Amino acid sequence: MFGLEASEPAKKSLKIFQENSSKLIVELGAGLGRDSIFFAKNKISVNSLDYTRIGINIINKKILDNNLQNITAKVFDIRKKLPFQDNSIDACFSHMLYCMALTSAELSYLNNEIKRILKPNGFNIYTVRNEHDGDYKNGIPRGEDMFEIDGFIVHFFTKEKVYSLMDGFKNILLENFEEGSFPRKLYFVVNKKIN
Fold it and tell me: Would you say the pTM of this structure is higher than 0.90?
């Protein structure tokens, strides 16, 4: 659906990870692993989590095909407690995970879990489709700025919604970008854990 090459947010995030010596990251909602594999090939240790067994099987095949030793992939529901120790991870990355069919309460829980596992000054970098996207307010309303489009529910974000998920974090960057031929309009969000 999104191609095989690493996403632009992953490329931008890699620079942030390298500049801040972030060596151990978690990708939440890793999909088919295009970004996880990209990070691993660039000497970042990656824990890839995704809800689907199919996605994780594809990532594991890519790990074997590329002979990568610094990446693990497992099926996981991010609405549960993240399977990592407190203050143990340098950064979390997710591309469009936050705009899945997750309620505000579930997003707040996830954000608190990310805060728990991040080391002091760790980064939470994520992207979300925003209120300027052509699909916003189209389709079937599902509450909390969620709309069902072609059988798929998308949670759209305003800047206010991004800022509502700042508990324990300081925002470093919030910028617009576009992706795909539609194009999708998104926010690229970089938050840093407050000590």
Answer: yes
